[in-house]
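Example (one chain per record):
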Amino acid sequence: MGELGFIRSVLDDMAIFVRSKYAMRDGLRIETKREANDLLTEVDLAVQEEIVARIRKAYPDDAIFAEEAGMSGPPTNRDARTWLIDPIDGTQNFVRGLFPAFGISLAFAVGGRPVAGGVAVPGKGELYLAEQGGGAFRNGERIRVSELDAIGSARAEVDFSGPWDREEILERFGRLMVEIGQVRCHCAAVIGLCSIATGDMDAYVHVALNAYDYAAAMLIVEEAGGKVTRLNGDPIHLFDDGRGVLGSNSVLHANLIEVISRGR
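Predicted structure:
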């Protein structure tokens, strides 16, 4: 079925599972990782375990880079065929139920670049898919970024992350938050980036993402006509040890880099 068909099949199944668990989230086992705001649930682990098992059956020679269960080390060959998994991006939203802004992310990369990817948003019944050179789609309908070119009218997702990143976020994005038209924060990278791909948002910034957080959504944005780079505009290799991510509708990209460079 090819990598994109595999991604679609896996995410369809995992979305059903996660949606059922979300309905029963009050009874879930929840742990913390780095500190009290960094959560891990039994659903994160179950989803990752199932996706890993399916990859190993279908593509036994490929590398896997995933958020949980000690699989967050980059592949030895950083240009190798690699699958990137974030079982639930936006775990805080999943646990608290504030709004259904959480997603399941699965990407396939070669040469440090995503070439196929998908994001399922179980709470909204949405499936985003993209393949290099093939466009980006939401539930089968093609999507495109906005054409907005004025920072003063733009909507930016400034991901405020956890307390461990907050000082740097305020320092680096303070000027942006003053000059941008509107500021939003879904606290889920895949939601923020996919919102650029649909034209609902115009930009997304974060100071410290891991490749599994954004690989699939990065490709979705690019195939929808947008652009995703490091905060200074450098191109991204998924395993280049870079941290910051800037996504935009591409029209605003140069201006956003300039504003970010001025910091707070």
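Caption: The CA atoms of residues 232 and 258 lie 8 Å apart.
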